[in-house]
Amino acid sequence: MVSNKSDPHTDPAPDGPHDEAEPALKLDSVGTILARARNAQGEELDAIADTIRIRRALLEALENDAHDQLPGGIYTIGFVRSYASYLKLDAEALEKQWRQEAEALTKKAEYSFPTPTLERRLPGVASIAIGLVILSLPLGAAIFYVNQDQAIELDIPALPERLQAYVPDYPAPEIDLPTETPAPLLATPIIANGTPEREVAPEPIVTDPTPQPGVTLDKPAQSFGTNAADARLSIVATRDVWVQVRDSNNDDRIILTRVLHANDTYHVPNRDGLLMTLGDAGAVRALLPDGTEHIPGNDGAVIRDIPLDADGIKQTGR
Length: 318
Description:
Layout: H1 30-41, H2 45-52, H3 56-63, H4 73-86, H5 91-106, H6 125-154, H7 161-164, E1 223-225, E2 233-237, E3 241-247, E4 253-260, E5 265-268, E6 274-278, E7 284-287, E8 293-294, E9 303-307, H8 310-316
Parallel strand pairs: 1-5
Antiparallel strand pairs: 2-5, 2-7, 3-4, 3-6, 6-9, 7-8
């Protein structure tokens, strides 16, 4: 591990006269600086993650400048400072540069599109003529087919004279067919014994709202407490857990008592005297502003009156 603190940015060009103005050198990103320093010192991500108590996936996101894979706010700033301090880099300079890079990503690009100029002019004679020809084609085809049908009807030859003798000259007899009025349809069916059968309404189809075996309906994660940017620390549930928070400086007034589901977060207000009781100490993770995270206790353990500050979490956690 290198003991001297190195400059995280690219070394400036040597002083001296220049005939032409050189273009400004583009600074390396914070992720590139961290990855280059780690490789130069021969460090492994797993070892660094165990030492500074930051998950390997978060360190990889820092080196890859993957802002969308980081929690943001004071947590990401804490990650950058902890990682830079471990590598003996200038933590304040990297923090400032990271803020600038994050701000640049949030700016929306503004586009200016030219407004096309519409040319208003009358169509030419040739265009009008072509349009009339195109419109007349379907009309001409229709007239042609109508005339063909009439010609077919008129071209039926007359009966030859030698065959007319076989045709009787008296009219065909008219046959009176009986007219029967159809019986009205019965709205109610009749059974064999003549008793009307009671009309049975169709049974409604009942849909079982119970999900099929193996299907899990995910619940959206919820946040409680204060804003994430103003929080002293955050409590994140990894599974269903009962949590109660009371204010010892305000007559033990209960400010939170509920079951947090997986990925639900409670942002702790930034004030003293808050105590937390957990029904399952291993079911939550406490995220501290320095970028570290702690688990208050073992799975299934009930722990009462945990001080909700960094020192209290570190003393109770494992």
